[in-house]
Amino acid sequence: MKPLDQQVLVVTGATSGNGLATVEQALRRGASVLAVARNEDALAELAARLGVGGGRIATYAADVADPAAVEAVAAAAIATFGGFDSWVNNAGVGTYGTLEQVPLDDHRRVFDVNYFGVLHGSLVAARHLRGRGGAIVNVGSILGDRSIVQQGPYCATKHAVQALTDTLRMELEREGAGISVTLIKPGAIDTPFPEHARNFMDQPPRLPPPLYTPEVVADAVLFACAHPRRTLYAGGGGLLSSLLAQAAPRLTDKIMELTGKTLQQKPGDPGIAARRDNLYEARDDDLRGSLDVHARGSSVALQGQKLPRPMLALALGAGAAIVAGLAVRARR
Fold first, then answer.
1. 328: exposed, middle or buried (C-beta count within 10 Å: 0-12, 13-18, 19+)?
2. 3-class DSSP assignment, residue 284
């Protein structure tokens, strides 16, 4: 795999949150970027701001739910940069509310973007990278390991993305395509996701602590672009939650049932969040969420996952043993 400063990256969902942080960090590290999003005005502002000083950035407006639009993204990367080396499937949407509250059309829209958007991007990227080598990096979630209440459709898509990514990796390895396929699993990240998600709860949504900054996810994504890894957890809180859910699923169920809704709500006017959702149309974008909360700017757990694989296996084994021990105590 090429060093990052010799790569061209395609990044979807590039004008807010994790995608925006990835674009900014990639340019700082010397990569060239095709930034993809629905919001044409935000893309123009992004190019004007980050192109100053010689940053090699181009933009393309597309909805990843449209397979023809995703094909056009690849064509734009080839026309502008002569191709690409890493493709980052990051675009995503969500809802807050029970499974019964969320209309079926909204369920389908979440799948169209979060699952089929990743599928379209992965297949287009694989066709271009096959034989050349490179990386496909899919941004999933710890909610692909463990569902929570009030975000059922989103959780379902992240489970599906995990299965898609595993299948894609096996199929490409079997044919010797030379493409690295990585799944990034962020925990709670301080992005505008709560404001952008369509809200059916009786209060505005928020993210449960501990929170990490989008730069932590960007760090994981960019590492995966240059280093083959199967999975990278972005944030130690999410990693511990996933390990606990595997070791003590019923205990985790009860915790979610008792606290899941409360931890995802904040007092206020629910109409404000609902009016700003981006489920079907682009909205104002930003790097961080609007809540005045502390977010951690680094993750020891992520740095540990960057270690050479034998050391990583030892560290993860020790962590799993600790969590299993705590789960046994909890059952007693």
1. exposed
2. coil
60, 96, 115, 154: the active-site residue? 154
Q: 235-288 pLDDT, tens per residue?
A: 988 898 889 888 998 998 888 888 878 888 877 665 554 457 999 999 877 766
Can the peptide bond before residue 210 be classed as cis, meaning omega within 30 degrees of 0?
yes
Q: Is 154 an annotated catalytic residue? A: yes
Quote the CA–CA distance of 60 and 124 in Å, as a whole number: 16
Structure confidence by residue, pLDDT tens digits, 211-233: 999 999 999 999 999 999 999 99
Whether the Cβ atoms of residue 74 and residue 125 lie closer than 8 Å to each other: yes
User: What is the reported pTM?
Assistant: 0.89
User: CB–CB of 224/289 below 8 Å?
Assistant: no
What DSSP designation does 74 have?
H
Q: What is the DSSP string of 126-181?
A: HHHHTTT-EEEEEE--GGGTS--TTBHHHHHHHHHHHHHHHHHHHHHHHTT--EEE
Cβ atoms of residues 34 and 22 within 8 Å: no
CA distance 112 to 118: 9
Pairing state between β 134-139 and 211-212? unpaired
Fold of 4-331: Rossmann fold (3.40.50)
- Can you spell out the DSSP letters for 259-280? HHHHHTB-SS-HHHHHHT--SS
- Write down the domain spans for the chain: 4-331
